[in-house]
Amino acid sequence: MIDNVIAFLPLLAKGAWITIALSLASVLMSIVFGFLGAAAKLSDSAILRGLGSTYTTVVRGLPELVLMLIIFFGGQILVNKIGPATGLYERIEINQFFAGSVAIGFIFGSYMAEAFRGAYLSIPRGQIEAAKAFGMRPRTWLVEIVWPQFVPLVLPNFTNNWLVLMKTTAVVSIIGLQDLTYMAQQAGKSTAEPFIFLFVAFLVYLLITIVSDLGLRVLERRYQRA
Fold first, then answer.
1. Domains plus CATH for the chain?
2. What pTM, to 2 d.p., does this model score?
3. Cα separation of 193 and 199, whole Å?
């Protein structure tokens, strides 16, 4: 049993690295979608507020796996219909890593949007109005007034979303990406010991979760002291 685990360690290490890289790429995408969603919901435009509300409501109401399959397969079909129709290109193959990171980022962007929106609304409006009255440029009051208060307010929700996102990356194995879950399943099939390798994957996910949680809590305390 131990010999099998040792023999497949390089395979599992490769899968763990892909899982970490996918998690980081996905969280960056979720931050982008989150800021766009929050900006839309905070906009003075009724159309943008409607689009932002539709995005967060619909995405949070559907299972992650269903959305992942829709984005992966539906996205490829859409992209490869646009190309021939416009004459810009013939066919594009979307790889699993890119599709997975965009899909997970899009899904968790809806949760980030609500976290960002809530944190921004928690900042006293009087401070922003005073900055505007003193003639501060938007970039200045965003950096000097909003950001130092925004980060500690959003970090608890961001931490929770990150930890759930990281575990959600396991579903990308369904589209063939060779992440940690995929590698553990393949090793288990090859050795007829699926429980052992899935347990190893469980320990790796747990380790990543603990390290991430500790790191983000240190960051949270640092901002609270500042």
1. 2-225 (1.10.3720.10)
2. 0.87
3. 10
